[in-house]
């Protein structure tokens, strides 16, 4: 038997509940939600990566162990090495893959080691901005598939590969890069046997032995749109790149394979003399300026079998992978840091249209 | 010799309580005569239809008995109760009801009981007899309980309240089991993002012109963190999904029915900041075919369906001009094909148990998630299977319990598999269902994850609870059967 009252009541209730819930989106700005406003990058090319703000938790209190006590790293595991004074620390990729940002400090050096597993880019920069030391977190946003960290002091969003604050209170501010060396665990611990290694005691529960993105780092697939595509190289080939005036030049690891363990390239880009030292065997490439503050332009030759020392300048000073003069007339000097890092080829191609590829 | 009662009077009969072996195999008749009321039942086990043509109690309609909860038969014919040893006629003298039983080989019933055939499908040879127990004898005791052969159910529901409630409860169970059957759509990084709809597909109405109207709400706590099969300690974040589904089903005829559904979604993700998204999700239309029309003895059904899911709501919501992730959008954004199968059967016990199996498959389409680069997004195909049972505790209360399996393919971006999406889940789904007097039925259920094997690291369901309200009407009976 048809009873109209319950029937219509249910229809009205159901439709009311639905129509009352028109498409709406709400976020708590007071709790650090993404503010609106100007972006220095096309905002329609910025996407939510999935986990949300701090859905990938950055590490702010890393724990370390001595190299001799570390058993979870294979010889060919990639690590990012930091050296401040006499202290060296290694940050394994297999931890960075899960957290992307480590806020750390050695002596008075406060740095955020950022790593984007989707672009394969590791960059360390100063956490002290405008006189205030802050920490960085993962915003959950991506630009050209690349990580957008945010600083917790102002909530501003920074483009990792652009090395620039692209939205928020600090918009337009450039990061101050700190030199890092990205290489294999075997190479790093041989260079620095007294190094400390970040452990998996991060305070979070993760499967650190597993790579979280399947075959991504070796296949040709991407997970998010990019603004420009450059097919000259395999998209996931790791190349070291240099940025000058928003243009870039990259150096392939294979360029450093010619017999010797270490190769040094004295080059120039956009009028700036640079030196590129690398070793395919040791899986390392670093880039510095050859011109010193006193206007001296050095030229370099490789040194073999003495890692981390890799090159000798024409004045007789030997320099290590961190651009530090370790012996000779300029011992203790520092080669000027460049805006350079290693990343996947496709990321270089999309961030820097027409990127130059070094060839002999 | 059996007592004879005519026209409501016990003639030459005093209070008798006894048992008569009918001599026709394993058939026993028990009766109680209290005052002017006769109560009896027939019990048969493994009877040989070749030896017994039919057994049919006779009686007269008593409207008062119907309204008061009595149990009676409506029959204009009088036939011998037994093919041998004399006749027995019994009547329902008043408001206290009567106990009776019957069983019937199919070939005889159409000839003898055309009135019954209008409301009862043919009996099948070999069916066990059943008996109807009615509480309410003034001076006596209720006898036995209903074993609910479906032919008797459809017959009873015309004639007595007890059977009506019972039939309704079984229908309630069937609908409730169906509403919990299947699974829900899933997606992406947590594989639970897309609007749930598959979980609300049931066997549909079985009668021409019958309607089913349902509203179901589900709350899904998606805060378990799992890497493949390994549960991890959850981070300090909360993610929930709430959905409301409005479903309308219409029986085109005894075979075909059509169902339309629309849902609304409320999603929340709270880590450092709170993201809350609300909106209309997807719609779904399914055409179902009942492959066992009229198969009511015992009540069984096999229903298959094909349908389409339409992206009614939005899948391009932005927060401060930034497109939010696909798993947080109200709609899945794509057109999908839906294929369903549903089968259930009554299993006779002291109270009837209904067992069922339900399957559904969603063939997903892709949608243009990134128009600026002309790149498409696609949730993984989904398969859901449920196996369960429902048990009636009384005229208004039923319990259900089912196991559910769900398999979701990985999502794709521009054809490439997206890591940390898709997987397999196993759930336990309990439920309680209540029939209200005005034809509205309520259900409360839950979904507890037992095991999962995910692709990579994902947030997944910790638990979910659901509440449903449904109402059926129209068709041949008020119960929507």
Describe the structure.
In chain A, strands 3-17-5-4-16 form a five-stranded mixed β-sheet. Chain A has a four-stranded antiparallel β-sheet with strand order 6-7-8-15. In chain A, 10% of the residues lie in helices and 37% in strands. Chain A contains four helices and 28 strands. Chain A has 360 residues and is mostly beta strands. Chain B is mainly β. Chain B folds into two domains: 5-145, no CATH class; 169-474, Porin (Beta Barrel). In chain B, 10% of the residues lie in helices and 44% in strands. Chain B is built from five helices and 28 strands. The longest helix of chain B is centred in the middle third of the chain and has 20 residues, at 161-180. Chain B is globular, with a radius of gyration of 27 Å. The interface between A and B is large, with 62 and 67 residues. β1 of chain A pairs antiparallel with β13 (274-290) of chain B, so a sheet runs across the interface.
| CA(first)-CA(last) distance of chain A | 89 Å
Approximate helicity band of chain B: under 10%
Which geometry of chain A do the CA atoms define? globular
Spatial arrangement of strands, main beta sheet of chain B:
8-11-12-13-14-17-18-21-22-25-26-28
Report the CATH topology name of the largest domain in chain B: Porin
CATH class of the largest domain in chain B: Mainly Beta
Which CATH-level-2 architecture of the largest domain in chain B?
Beta Barrel
Give the strand content of chain A.
Answer: 35-45%
Number of domains of chain B: 2
Report on the biggest sheet of chain A.
Answer: 5 strands, mixed
Question: In a nutshell, what does this entry contain?
Answer:
Chain A is mainly β. Helices cover 10% and strands 37% of the residues of chain A.
